[in-house]
Specification:
Strand content: 25-35%
Helix content: 25-40%
Largest sheet: 6 strands, antiparallel, barrel
Number of helices: 6
Number of domains: 5
Shape: elongated
Strand order of the largest sheet: 3-12-15-14-13-16
Number of strands: 24
């Protein structure tokens, strides 16, 4: 079938064209060049002229292939970063072999159960001492914080210049009233002596008796006023009602002391010191009054020995905590307000003790993994009651005869088949 570039008109090649170009017309059949025949090389000018359209298509194909390759490369990198990094956790069972685990049979050990809590050192009886008398200016202070005082010892003094004059005036009034009462009583006695002779009428005698009684009562009134003034004068001396140690001093010379105002001094009654704290509700049921306690203070290496003096009668419904008081011996190092930590020994028992690597915890609580008789892993929930230098004390959940997985329990699953490694002593005997 003849092939032509234009069915109507055939353009003749230019006469000055030196390139070897074959024109295919309608009336000229296409002649296939044999494979064995060499293909003449076209000049560079003819290739550029005749092949220009083919070069543009080739460039477009190259750009398209490059873009597709770039997109594939970006997709591959994204898959590596996102999908390739999130690998599921591999367990020992996924590795194709039966895991080899080390187990421990804990048995039971003698352990001491204790309850620990924090609190502060405080005086057992912290007595505030303030001004009980009239308002006045402090003119003297006789003690400092930390001084030991005796009952009745003066701590400070308030200006008493006015009170002293009142006491003196009432003392004179009392003497005057007493003299008048004595005179009235003498006149009444004389009237009684002449009553039988009729020298005085009954009315005069009765008036003298009433005067004597009135003067005697006036003596009592003045005496009461004098006693009141003396009591008010005594209150100008601020004294301590008990033996103890001065904890704080807020009185200064020149200060105005008002009755019922802030405490001028705080005195520790009898020098008794205690620790006050709060413990959890479940621990409060184990602690008893009289149990031994050890108290540790920040910055002091040596512990202080005491005993439980008081347990709170109620539990706070918000915090679920109860009060506890620890009686402590008198010691200058025990300063009220100091932070302290106490440990109360609540009893001794025999409990299984496991290394910390064998006890795990999750949202359901603490647990251990044991190997049953079929060499399969089982999960057992346990309750931890404390720690010792040798490990974790198990209060409930184990009897001590189980084979507990010692390490790497997090890589095992419940019900997984395992192989128990022989003890280190057996390995050494087998090697010899």
């Amino acid at each position: 079938m003849p092939v032509g570039t234009n069915p109507d008109h055939i353009v003749s090649p230019p006469e000055n064209q030196d390139d070897h170009v074959t024109w295919i017309g309608r009336d000229r059949p296409f002649e296939r060049v044999p494979v064995s025949a060499p293909i003449p090389e076209a000049p560079a000018t003819s290739v550029r002229a005749a092949g220009a359209p083919l070069s543009g298509a080739s460039n477009r194909w190259k750009w398209t292939l490059g873009a597709i390759a770039a997109l594939l490369l970006i997709a591959l990198v994204a898959w590596k970063l996102l999908a390739g990094g999130a690998k599921p956790t591999e367990t020992l069972a996924d590795r194709g072999g039966v895991p080899l685990v080390s187990v421990i049979v804990p048995g039971e050990q003698a352990v001491t159960s204790s309850v620990s809590f924090t609190g502060a050192i405080a005086a057992r009886y912290d007595m505030p001492i303030a001004n009980e008398g009239d308002t006045g200016r402090i003119v003297a202070v006789y003690v400092e914080a930390g001084d030991h005082v005796k009952r009745g010892q003066a701590l400070a003094k308030i200006d008493d210049s006015v009170m002293v004059q009142q006491v003196n005036r009432l003392s004179a009034s009392l003497e005057q009233a007493q003299a008048q009462a004595a005179l009235s009583a003498a006149e009444y006695r004389r009237a009684q002596g002449v009553e039988a002779a009729g020298a005085l009428s009954a009315e005069d005698i009765e008036k003298r008796r009433a005067t004597a009684v009135t003067d005697a009562a006036n003596v009592k009134v003045v005496a009461a006023q004098l006693a009141e003034a003396q009591a008010r004068l005594a209150r100008t001396r601020i004294t301590t009602p008990v033996d103890g140690t001065v904890l704080t001093r807020h009185a200064e010379v020149g200060q105005i002391a008002n009755p019922g105002g802030d405490a001028l001094f705080r005195v520790e009654s009898g020098g008794e010191i205690e620790m006050r704290g709060q413990i959890a509700e479940q621990d409060l049921a184990q602690v008893k009054v009289g149990q031994a306690a050890t108290v540790y203070l920040t910055g002091i290496a040596r512990p202080f020995t005491g005993e439980v003096r008081l347990l709170g009668a109620v539990i706070d419904p918000q915090t679920r905590l109860g009060d506890i008081r620890i009686r402590l011996p008198g010691d200058p190092a025990l300063r009220p307000g100091a932070f302290a930590r106490a440990v109360v020994t609540v009893g001794q028992a025999r409990r299984p003790v496991l290394p910390q690597t064998a006890v795990m915890a999750d949202s359901n609580g603490s647990y251990v993994l044991i190997v049953n008789s079929a060499d399969k892993v089982e999960r057992h929930a346990v309750r931890v009651s404390g720690t010792t230098d040798t490990g974790v004390i198990i209060a409930d959940g184990l009897t001590g005869t189980e084979r507990v997985v010692a390490t790497a329990g997090g890589f095992l699953r419940d019900g997984e088949k395992v192989k128990v490694a022989p003890p280190s002593g057996a390995k050494a005997a087998a090697s010899t």
